[in-house]
Write a structure and sequence with these properties.
Helices cover 24% and strands 28% of the residues. The protein has 7 helices and 18 strands.
Length: 435
């Protein structure tokens, strides 16, 4: 589907924007960690909409801005979290880390929550309509998040200092689905018949609520554009690569060959966990890249030869992924040559990574409690937040100034938990297992 883009600003403003961003590139911005940390503003309401069950959900996002940045215009990356459309959160450890790192490179980043869950879970089990509706609700929310920042530019004097000509959308796993569908599913001929086109509050299939509002949806900030400049897809997939056509926006993808959750190529996908419900055949990142090459879209694709889902978030692949995405975006920000094989790691200030490595959470696995070693923070005021596998906040402790702090399990079930340590506008992330 060929896109017709409308100019939001005049040609003089576009030229001024390009000149300023190129000047920023000369100082190493967008290539290395030139900022020490990110200043985080949490739980900003960007919209609301009807959930799968018919209730109303307020939609929230967290904004990460480069600490100490004085630039009047900055590019924006909106990120969507993983979780199979039934779990996950904007505060997941991998989202905190990737948003922080790209803020340290000079981008404003936003991690969004979107509507989760789908009809017929757990019994009798969702089908392709149920799962497709969950994807579409999330895509509508993603579009609303992009529109939120454009609305802020016009109606709130650009409080985040966003260059609206440089807005990107990225996602991990389910977030990658959102990014790909947001970028390439934008013609009515591509939409399933159950998607509501009438402006009512539910679709034509029982339980398909919150799908009203056409292509853009009604999750908020109507009247503003949801167009983005490029897509970042990390272990995601799209329902049909035929929707990707000549003239569409560029993208970068990464994926592991042995991904057992989201297909690397074209295959049947199951709802995971617990891999019990077959949903539909989807086109993974390898098929997406092949289609992009076929129709001549600027794109990069990196394969990881491991049997993992979301290898991008794991050592040793995370640093490579950040470097690849950094270099891909640098092509648009700074006019550098497109180099899809770039492997040199990002360098510069990396205080967060250093502390991440030195913070000890013990015992791990834990049974009744775990302790967080806080000696690295030298008595500074620290907060600790614990999230379960579905991204729900289950423990919070504030105003900690001791060298260590113990979190009691109480009634928490066994499983993996994310532990975020917050101080001075920075977030450090660890994982802990309760047995």
């Amino acid at each position: 589907m060929k896109k017709i883009y409308t100019l939001i600003t005049g040609s003089c403003l576009l030229a001024a924007s390009a000149t300023q961003l190129n000047a920023q590139c000369a100082g190493g911005r967008y290539h290395d960690f030139v900022f020490p940390a990110a200043d985080v503003t949490s739980n900003i309401t960007y919209g609301s909409n009807t959930t799968f069950s018919g209730s109303t959900q307020a939609l929230k996002l967290d904004v990460y801005q480069p600490q100490g940045d004085t630039a009047s215009l900055r590019p924006l990356i909106v990120w969507a979290h993983p979780g199979s459309f039934v779990g996950g959160s904007k505060a997941d450890a991998e989202m905190v880390k990737i948003c922080t790192d790209f803020a340290k490179l000079g981008y404003v980043t936003a991690s969004i929550d979107y509507r989760l869950f789908m009809t017929d879970l757990p019994f009798p089990g969702p089908d392709s309509n149920d799962a497709g509706a969950a994807v579409m609700r999330a895509v509508h929310d993603g579009r609303a998040a992009v529109r939120y920042f454009r609305k802020d530019v016009v109606e709130n004097s650009n409080s985040y200092k966003i260059d609206t000509n440089n807005i990107y959308f990225g996602g991990i796993s389910a977030g990658g689905f959102i990014a790909l569908h947001l970028g390439y599913m934008d013609q009515w001929s591509e939409f399933p018949t159950y998607i509501d086109t009438t402006g009512t509050t539910s679709g034509s299939v029982t339980g398909q609520k919150g799908l009203h509002g056409g292509i853009e949806g009604l999750s908020g900030n109507q009247g503003y554009s949801s167009k983005v400049k490029a897509i970042i897809n990390l272990s995601g997939a799209i329902s049909d690569t035929a929707w990707i056509d000549q003239g569409d926006i560029p993208l970068i993808s990464t994926h592991a060959t042995g991904d057992g959750t989201v297909p690397y190529g074209t295959s049947l996908i199951y709802l995971s966990p617990p891999n019990t419900y077959p949903i539909q055949v989807v086109d993974g990142s390898a098929s997406v890249a092949a289609r992009a090459n076929e129709v001549g879209i600027t794109n990069c694709f990196r394969t990881y030869y491991v049997n993992e889902h979301v290898a991008e978030a794991e050592v040793p692949f995370y640093d490579t992924t950040v470097s690849l995405v950094r270099t891909f975006l640098e092509h648009f920000m700074c006019g550098t040559a497109m180099d899809c094989n770039f492997t040199a790691k990002v360098t510069g200030i990396n205080d967060v990574a250093a502390k991440d490595a030195s913070i000890n959470v013990y015992p791990n696995p834990a049974t009744a409690a775990f302790t967080v070693d806080l000696k690295e923070f030298n008595g500074k005021n620290v907060s600790i937040e614990v999230y379960d596998a579905l991204g729900r906040s289950v423990k919070t402790a504030n105003n900690i100034k001791t060298s260590s702090y113990t979190i009691n399990r109480d009634n928490l079930p066994k499983g993996m938990y994310s532990v975020n340590i917050l101080t001075e506008g920075r977030v450090y992330s660890k994982k802990v297992m309760f047995e």
